[in-house]
Design a protein that fits this description.
CATH architecture of the largest domain: Ribbon
Order of helices and strands: HHHEEHHEEEEEEEEE
Largest sheet: 9 strands, mixed
Strand content: 25-35%
Mean pLDDT: 78
CATH class of the largest domain: Mainly Beta
Shape: elongated
CATH superfamily of the largest domain: Umud Fragment, subunit A
Structural class: alpha+beta
Number of strands: 11
Low-confidence stretches: 1-5, 88-108, 120-129
Strand order of the largest sheet: 4-3-5-6-11-7-8-9-10
Number of domains: 2
Radius of gyration: 21 Å
Number of helices: 5
């Protein structure tokens, strides 16, 4: 009978099972927050530590510690089989086979966009310059250039149907057209989501909510153009 070399804790087995079930049901791995919910882990830092251990022991493959770019290895599947945590006839899905992984990725045409922090829509706050997580998107989304996601705080863009808690999908570009919705950095280093206009050598960052004044500035740095959004209705503040 095959033996798992490294003894796994119940929490680690729960994590492996959460990854397996997410891949079976959705076709892509869970985020760290989803892992916390599925495996009953109290904090994301604890989940990250457990993922690092599982990666080091060879039960998962974690690409540069990207939670959305992980997969179970054959060793991880074997651990679930030995514990009786795979349903009969399951556990041989080609998505989990290391030898087939490159071909599956080619067929699924999925890429992972980084969630790089938060942007306030309203009273600007400094954007957090680190990657919080990764989100799977169809490969064609990236055809126009690099993509990243930012979470919106505030309600200044409600007229454009951008709500607090939304993830705005942003294409990196240093310029934009009149009236485009952009992520812009002001001279004092604050990032915000606004509609862009320029008049008489000044930039106007216009809210889509009459309760917020227009920001009129001599210069701004365009971080990218908003081309879409992702809404989690459990995160939206109404």
């Amino acid at each position: 009978m095959p033996q798992t070399i490294v003894a796994l804790s119940k929490r680690q087995l729960d994590i492996l099972q959460a990854i397996y079930e997410s891949m079976e049901e959705q076709g892509y791995p869970p985020s760290v927050r989803e892992i916390c919910a599925l495996a009953h882990i109290p904090s994301t830092s604890t989940a990250h530590n457990e993922l690092k251990k599982l990666n080091k022991s060879g039960f998962i493959h974690l690409e540069q510690e990207k939670t959305r770019a992980l997969r179970l290895t054959e060793k991880g599947l074997q651990a679930l089989r030995e514990e009786g945590l795979l349903m009969s006839g399951r556990g041989h899905h080609p998505l989990f086979d290391e030898r087939n992984a490159p071909h599956i990725m080619e067929r699924s045409k999925v890429r992972y966009a980084p969630i790089v922090g938060k942007v306030t829509a309203g009273v600007p706050i400094t954007a957090v310059e680190h990657i919080e997580d990764y989100y799977p998107l169809p490969e064609h989304t990236f055809s126009g250039g690099d993509i990243f996601l930012l979470r919106v705080e505030g309600d200044s863009m409600i007229g454009a149907a951008i709500l607090e808690g939304d993830l705005v999908l942003v294409r990196k570009q240093p310029s934009a057209e009149q009236g485009d919705i952009v992520v812009a950095m002001t001279p004092d280093g604050e990032a915000t989501v606004k509609r862009l206009y320029w008049r008489e050598r000044t930039f106007h960052l216009v809210a889509e909510n009459p309760a917020y004044p227009t920001l009129i500035l001599p210069e701004v740095t365009i971080l990218g153009k908003v081309i879409g959004l992702i809404r989690d209705y459990e995160q939206v503040v109404l």
